Amino acid sequence: MMKVEITCPIYPSEDPEKVRTAIERIFPGAEIVEDEKGLKGNTDNLDHFSKQIRKQKILDTTRSVLLRGKRGNITRFFLNKQVAFVGKISFCEEKTILGTMRVVVEDDELDAVIENVAPETVDGEEVLI
Fold first, then answer.
1. What is the dihedral sign for C-alpha 127, 115, 46, 66?
2. 91 pairs with which residues across the strands?
3. What pLDDT, in 10s, does the model give residues 92-119?
4. What does the pLDDT read at residue 124?
5. CA distance linking residue 22 with residue 28, whole number of Å
6. Hey, how many other C-beta atoms are within 10 angstroms of the C-beta on 66?
7. Crossing angle of helices 47-55/59-68, nearest 10°?
8. Of the residues 72, 100, 101, 117, which has the maximum number of CB atoms within 10 A of its CB?
């Protein structure tokens, strides 16, 4: 079963509710709790994320990021949380000035998850088998 963990620090200059909204706009339905480091969300669903990358036409980029972050049955990547607040996906490096949202996806069949979320493309179009 797929597990998705989202962690997002909250800096003193940030509104915790806006950070929560950023997570919810990319991962609606995630169970979010606050701890001393920030917010942590958990979900088993990447449907909205997958729809959003198609809408933004960033399948190739997403696939590359998911494969680059893959280690065994886990992949991790980072999203810009300010961009997430407006419901868009923008991948970034782990340390950015405006903060990141860390996403870890774990599944025994991770290759199938990646294929489902961000399939291969030809000329920007999904390859349908």
1. negative
2. 79
3. 998 777 679 999 999 999 999 999 999 8
4. 67
5. 10
6. 22
7. 130
8. 101
Q: Using one digit for the tens of pLDDT, what is the confidence trace for 25-70?
A: 999 999 999 988 899 999 999 999 999 999 999 999 999 999 999 9
Residues in CB range of 59: below 8 A, 6 or more apart? 53, 118, 119, 121, 124, 126
Per the listing, tokens 């917010």 go with 39
pTM: 0.92
Does residue 127 have a pLDDT over 80? no
Structure-token pair, residue 12:
């003193």
* Residue 75 structure tokens: 């992949």
Structural domains of the chain, ranges and CATH numbers in brackets: 3-126 (3.30.1440.10)
Tokens encoding 2 = 């797929």
